[in-house]
Specification:
Radius of gyration: 23 Å
CATH superfamily of the largest domain: Impact, N-terminal domain
Oligomer: single chain
CATH class of the largest domain: Alpha Beta
Helix content: 25-40%
Number of domains: 2
CATH topology of the largest domain: Ribosomal Protein S5, domain 2
Number of strands: 11
Strand order of the largest sheet: 2-3-6-4-5
CATH architecture of the largest domain: 2-Layer Sandwich
Amino acid sequence: MKDTYKTITKASPEVLFKDRNSKFFGYAFPVRTEEEANIHLEELKTKHHKARHWCYAWQFGKSEADFQYRANDDGEPSNSAGMPIYGQIQSFEVTNILIVVVRYFGGVKLGVGGLINAYKTAAQMALEEANIVKRTIDELFEISFDYPEMNIVMRLIKENNLNIIEQKLELDCKIYISVRKKDAAAIFEKFDTTYKVEIKKLED
């Protein structure tokens, strides 16, 4: 079971690709929603208000089962901009990402082949400048127990090197943990079979 994915941690530096006087500025941003992607797009449209096209592609999700993506040619010939950009997202195997390529027209038409190459190259350059990291796909659990069971629960957490996200330690206690997907079933069973301890999976 694959339980890792790759993404970027921060916006990449601006890159520039030139072809026959046309300029293609490339950007990569970490995003998790379409709303976040739209904010970056609007900021770039303000920054490059004299540009001709703001073409982009994004992909969200942590595994192929829940990937969402969009590719936008923004007025360029069909599939000459958005899909070449998205192709680089696939090539670098990254997700939760937006790549935008801003074009200033230089007066010479590049043809569809030239456009595909330019948008692909600018997207590739942006990704090469980005800080790509590998993350684990985790599942979240809530562990509920009474205070007397504290030592048993904490021992299980320590023995299994589990990551505590939040804890509420009162008379009735709750601890929230994240577990790598491949280990989730085994960890669930350990707590589920512990006397006076309840565990349930949460949606992240």
